[in-house]
């Protein structure tokens, strides 16, 4: 398995990229993933938008939020704990 290269950096500026340098937020990750699924499955292409639909203008922010939360999940070590339980 590949090791985290940030762990070798002894600079506090990069501490947030080191293992155990983040806290995971699994409920937020799930919410962003479900929002992405809703955005890609709602049938509003060229039609009037329903109130419950999420605007495609939110796509970039939703994708970036998923990347950020997934990164935090890996760096927190929580993903390893989940994997070990299986």
Describe the fold and architecture.
With 86 residues, the chain is mostly helical. Helix content is 49%, strand content 0%. The protein has helices spanning 26-41, 59-76, 78-85.
Summary, kept brief:
The chain has 86 residues and is mainly alpha-helical.
Major sheet characteristics: none
Annotation, overall tally of beta strands: 0
Mean pLDDT: 85
* Beta content: under 5%
Topology as H/E string? HHH
- Our count of helices gives 3
Q: Please give the alpha-carbon distance between the first and last residues.
A: 18 Å
Summary keywords:
about 90 residues, mainly alpha, about 50% helix, elongated
How is this fold's topology laid out?
Elements: H1 26-41, H2 59-76, H3 78-85
């Amino acid at each position: 398995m590949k090791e985290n290269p940030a762990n070798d950096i002894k600079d506090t500026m990069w501490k947030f990229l080191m293992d155990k340098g983040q806290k995971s937020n699994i409920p937020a990750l799930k919410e962003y993933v479900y929002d992405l699924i809703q955005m890609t499955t709602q049938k509003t292409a060229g039609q009037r938008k329903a109130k419950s639909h999420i605007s495609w203008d939110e796509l970039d922010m939703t994708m970036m939020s998923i990347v950020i939360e997934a990164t935090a999940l890996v760096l927190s070590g929580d993903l390893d704990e989940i994997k070990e339980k299986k």
